[in-house]
Design goal:
The complex is a heterodimer of chains A (413) and B (142). Chain A is α/β, with parallel strands linked by helices. Chain A is 41% helix and 15% strand. Chain A contains 15 helices and 15 strands. With 142 residues, chain B is an alpha+beta fold. In chain B, strand 1 and strand 2 form a beta hairpin. Chain B is globular and about 45 Å long. Classes of the chains: A alpha/beta (413), B alpha+beta (142).
């Protein structure tokens, strides 16, 4: 099929910019920073307003009807997320502020209790700082050591090295499902198979995968799964930690205070079990409701349709970007699994490109993308990153390519 | 001409591709380095001061066009100046980056950077080397 025809059909098949008020109000904006945060559909914005207009009360505190309504709203959101992820039970879903907090909880409330001096933590070699720093903190506190799974030149994880890197001292493996820089998706099932042979729990940072492909925790067989609402068309400030029930029960509280206690005496307290043990204080129920609405929104479109749309965009971008002389893609050159492109341009710094693109109303990210060690791995200081979402169109990619060519001309490259 | 073209005009592109007084001095009297963690811009500055005069200066920068050109132009601008005069130039330049006030700059090269004020996220790139030099000179004066 001719590319132009394919392009036309596809643009028609998932032309949903109209659902996103910010994109409607700014029609000239080419938003290519979904990996940083996604735009929000009208239904999510409406859900937030509707909660405050019709259901606003504290959850699990009042005996009055409105409080019940708020509690139901929160628990419905928990069930929706549990079902979306394929968790065994909604009791395995903890609401957090986002992926960063979720990973911190695993490190501090789960792993730290299990670590002894000389133990080891195994991480992917291209993780976001959020999946490194919490482990560094507990490693320092317990005199443990962090090992990293090497990243190959094409951006893939060297899975063959995992068995060599683990030992009886290895107490957790934590790894991104999809890299926020390389556009690679890691074979979590293969990793959990290896890890579970040695009874090592596996935590997965799902921030970049959760709204782009179907997630089935049973299939992945991971023990923890984390993600942020705001990258998945939901509100900012809400995220999720899935913890396998036996591990969730083993974990000690993270924040303490109201809402997570069973009984408080003057000299000691006991805690509730289940996810509420990690939800001290008043949760943002509106945001949880907004997140559930976002998940229902992509479910209604269909995750297969989302994945197909993004795959076609990725193929199209791959072809176009590879044709630009002096453009160096970081990670796979073809068959990129996720719609995230990091690249450099010979002789032009990423921040200059980003400013020139911004002048044409094209929003891309430039910098180290919270992963300085990944930059070092590829001997660069920074990249430009363009990342797509369900609202991205072929015209957006054309605008990016034209913008890059314009920048090259400006720099006489 | 758009603001962007005014910013990325020949002067900045040329200085970024062929920075003046680039590298390290063999026997500096003061040295400093600064980093912009957001973009990874890095600059090492060496100065040689004799009798309160900047006899020699060099900047070793790696970073975007704006930070590299700003360091290159700074080195040319302050060499031969008396410390207090250089401090004054630095202060005026840094203010012009924020306010866009062309009147604060004496030379065409410096006036080009006034356009940076329209790109707030890039002010740090243009000011990195100037802020670092200013700190060194102020320490020498105090």
């Amino acid at each position: 099929m001719a590319k132009s025809l394919l392009k036309e059909q596809h643009t028609e098949s998932l032309n949903i910019k109209a659902d996103f008020p910010l994109l409607v109000r700014q029609p000239s904006l080419v938003y290519l920073d979904t990996a940083s945060t996604s735009q929000k559909p009208q239904c999510v914005i409406d859900a937030l307003v509707s909660f405050y207009e019709t259901s606003n009360a504290n959850a699990h505190r009042g005996v009055y009807k409105l409080s019940n309504k708020a509690s139901n709203c929160l628990e419905d959101a928990r069930s929706c997320i549990a079902s979306y992820l394929g968790a065994q039970s909604e009791q395995e879903i903890i609401f957090t502020k986002g992926t960063t907090e979720s990973l911190n909880i695993i490190a501090k409330s789960f792993l730290k209790n299990r670590l002894n001096s000389g133990d080891r933590i195994l991480l992917g070699g291209a993780e976001h700082h959020a999946n490194i720093v919490p482990w560094q903190v507990v490693a320092r506190e317990t005199n443990s050591v962090i090992d990293y799974i090497p990243i190959l030149e094409d951006g893939s994880l060297d899975i063959s090295s995992i068995e060599k890197l683990i030992s009886p001292k290895t107490k957790i493996i934590s790894i991104a499902h999809t890299s926020n820089i390389l556009g690679t998706t890691n074979a979590i099932k293969e990793i959990t198979n290896i890890a579970h042979k040695y009874s090592i729990p596996v935590a997965v940072d799902g921030a970049q995968s959760v709204s782009h492909q179907e997630i089935d925790i049973k299939e992945l067989d991971c023990d923890f799964f984390t993600f942020s609402g705001h990258k998945a068309y939901g509100p900012m400030g809400i995220g999720v930690l899935y913890a396998r029930s036996e591990y969730l029960e083993e974990m000690s509280p993270f924040l303490t205070g109201g809402g997570m206690i069973e009984e408080v005496n003057l000299d000691h307290s006991t805690y509730v079990s289940g996810p509420q043990k990690f939800e001290a204080g008043t949760l943002s129920i509106a945001d949880a409701h907004g997140l559930a609405t976002a998940i229902q929104y992509i479910q209604n479109i269909g995750l297969d349709k989302v994945a197909n749309h993004e795959r076609s965009l990725t193929e199209y971008a791959e072809q176009k970007l590879n044709k630009i002389e002096g453009l160096n893609l970081i990670g796979p050159l073809s068959n990129r699994p996720a719609p995230i492109f990091s690249f450099t341009l010979d002789g032009i710094h990423p921040h200059d490109i980003a400013t020139i693109l911004d002048d044409q109303n094209i929003a891309v990210r430039a910098g180290h993308h919270c992963s300085q060690h990944t930059m070092k791995r590829f001997n660069i200081n920074a990249t430009i990153r363009a990342s797509f979402g369900i609202y991205t169109t072929y015209s957006d990619i054309d605008a990016l390519v034209d913008g890059i060519i314009y920048a090259k001309k400006l720099f006489n490259k | 001409m758009s603001s962007l073209l005014e910013l990325y005009q020949e002067i900045i592109i040329e200085h970024s591709q062929f920075p003046r007084r680039s590298g390290r001095l063999p026997e500096p009297t003061s040295s400093t380095s600064a980093k912009n963690p957001l973009c990874g811009d890095l600059v090492n500055i060496d100065v040689k001061i004799e009798d309160s005069i900047i006899k020699d200066i060099s900047c070793e920068s790696s970073g975007c066009a704006i930070s590299t050109a700003a360091a290159s132009i700074m080195a040319e601008e302050v060499v031969g100046k008396e410390i207090n005069a250089a401090i004054e130039t630095c202060k005026k330049f840094i203010t012009s980056l924020k306010t866009g006030d062309e009147n604060l700059s004496d030379t065409t090269e410096l006036k080009v950077f006034c356009k940076v004020s329209e790109y707030p996220t890039r002010v740090k790139c243009a000011s990195l080397s100037w802020q670092s030099l200013l700190k060194v000179l102020e320490n020498l004066e105090s």
